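Predict structure. Chain length: 403.
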Amino acid sequence: MRVLCACLLAVAVAAAAPAAAPAKKRTRPVLVVSNNWAGTADLVDPKRFTRLERINVVPDLQQRLAEIRASPDRLAYFNLIRQAVGEGHDQYVDDGFTSRNGRVVYFSRPSLADVVAISLRTHHILWRTRVEGYRADHMALSPDGRHLLVSASTARKVHEIDTGTGRIVGSFPSGDQPHENNFSRDGKLIYHASIGAVYTALDEPSMDKTKGDRWFEIVDARTLKVLRRIDMGAKLAQYGWPNMSAAVRPMALSPNERYVFFQLSFLHGFVAYDLKRDRPLRIAHLPLSEKAKHMTREQYLLDSAHHGLAINPRGTKFCVAGTMSDYAAIVGRRRFRYKIIPVGHTPYWATNSGDGRNCFVSVSGDDRVAVISYRKRREIASIPVGDHPQRMRMGRIRRSYLR
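Prediction complete.
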């Protein structure tokens, strides 16, 4: 009987293998670059460093603007987003993830307070979902591709959206201005952070409480129950680092997910935090440029000294976007030794290539993406993109969809 079962299993595996291989070959990797002010997204070849496609993320813009103008409260927030967050520009696209089958790309659109699914074949909107409140922000896609998280900035919550239908199927509470979202590798946990009122001028440590509730949260991805809520400012003070902001910005998890590394408002560097022992371990302090040394806190872009952090697949090196100092940095995990790489004006996100060899840094002030080699610790390519690139995500697209 064992021999028979083994033979049947071998036949089943052999039958399944040919079907899986062609499915993989039908798609190819892409880097999705969201151009915040332009309302477009560039699909970039992550190996040849060239643009493959440009997508209009707001093909329905005139309809949406008509709706906003007809609603006094929505119009007030639309204008507030432009002046307080967008540096005088409307924020038409923030974050973008492709579906696992390479057929669809999902985008959050901050100024329009919604999420859309766009066909990668036709570039038409397949569904649109309004978030609660008046602004949509960072997203995360579950490992199985079935659920999308989006931070509803003014509603103090994160929505979970069914990617097939666009329906909001759940939410969990957050602090003021919910921001960053990440799934654990197995999809069982969500790591979330809120950043508070980063657009105010009350930036000195003595005014920190005016920024609102800022929490790092660990959430059960199945039930959306908040399992742990941490005030990082209080934790840092408890362990000898007083007067630090509680606003966790971009974060990166170690390969075993015991440690989380995160940037904070006003911090030129990042924090290493032990999730098992529930305490901060070290702070990587990175240098300030001459320009940044002469800046007041009020001059920081949305309180971001640094905004962009990635860790290589081996968990040995970090790629850091030094926003106010106009550099990227490759930082060793063991001793926090670093190599500074000047990249231009206002680098604002960092993400790894699919093979983990390179780090992509969006240089939002220069409308380009810098490609940084982890091994060589230098910029190896530059990719021109649209107006004010910010979030970037690795994804896949059907080869037949490329024109």
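Summary: Residues 1-21 have pLDDT under 50 and may be disordered.
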